[in-house]
Amino acid sequence: MKNKVETYIERFKATIQSLEHADERIKKQDIDFVRALSRIVETHPGIKSGRSKYIAEKALLISCALDMSSEEKKDIFYAALLMQIGKITLPDKLLTKPFYSMSVVDKYRYLGHSVESEALLLGLTQFAGATTLIRHQYEHYNGQGFPDGLKQQNIPLGSRILSVVSDYIEYLEGSMTGKVMYADAALSQLMIRKESCYDPDIVDIFANVLKGATVEELKEALAKSKLLAVATERWRKGFVMNSQNKHIKPISIVEIALPQLKVGMKVDRIYFGGQLYIRNCVVDQSIIDNVTKLAKNYGNNLIIKICLDVK
Questions:
Q1: Which of 191-205, 234-248, 297-311 has the lowest mean pLDDT?
Q2: Cα–Cα distance between 162 and 20 in angstroms, integer?
């Protein structure tokens, strides 16, 4: 199988050289090559058919929600279809063994297929971006991944996307835990590993992808989550400040309307859509701006309660 793939790649390189002045033909040749090579790889024992196509489709939806460039989307598409190519260098026995049951040595050998993919695709400059994404598909958000221990934003965004979608399939099939899971349970595995293994934003977007959200709905949900993140950070700062106060005065909790919210007020709680949005902080202009934006974009169903000192 490895010789077959290498022969196919070399033949493709020769074809591209003969088409170096025909951009459109090269572009079509690239797509046809990637799809054909992906199908060849998936005929190898232990590599499941259809997996790469699923990852490519879901990863593209996530990339659209993030407004990634056309070039970045292309790299993700190619990487998704080719991310298993390095597995053809592994023994069939290893490929048919669930990941959870592998020894530590075998696990590292298995993960090494991401680096082998890089070697196989070496010299295909049009796939350089995709090759980088494939190499880093097993990096962890906390920096404890493979092969380079990259952390958070240092991990290519495309790799973070591929990691979430690919591991979701692994959880469904039971390869990661030894237990086949329903969709909700598999998604829960991603959720509890946000910040440690996965980019939290990517997991949240993917959760909405699984619900069948459109690209526009994905973008709206992402915008809302970012506003909530800002509010949470403001709450943390306010909570720290309040916890350092040595003298606590008696207070009264009063509900006010949004236009009455002013800089310097002490917020007890703000509810949005029946859910707690922010609590225990001192209002600054950014909080007012965020709450106003939420009300404008998602409806003015706010409940604002402030603290007044009792004299």
A1: 234-248
A2: 31
